[in-house]
Amino acid sequence: MSNSSDPRRPEKELRYKPSVVSSQAQPGDxxxxxxxxxxxxxxxxxxxxxxxxxxxWVALYCSCISFANSRVSDDTKQxxxxxxxxxxxxxxxxxxxxxxxxxxxxxxxx
Length: 110
What we know:
- The protein is mostly helical.
- About 55% of the residues lie in helices and about 0% in strands.
- Helix 1 (about 30-50) runs parallel beside helix 3 (about 75-95).
């Protein structure tokens, strides 16, 4: 097979150079664990400071979602600390007031 019949043009080939953008997330990155981790910490602090049981439970839910969606390469210390903070928010809110939780919308209905 001769090179004269080859339709490719080596002078037109351009080498691929990936663009380096460190401030933005890459298209393959999933930021759900990071967002849920931040939400879990915010709701944990609200549950601890304002003694809101529903905030503590939402924090535990967000921490579970963050843990479930995390990758092996993620920082496990931060995820574990968020999880422990949300568990402590639930425990402390029930130690301060052992009555069952009343949902926030129950006071509006009555």
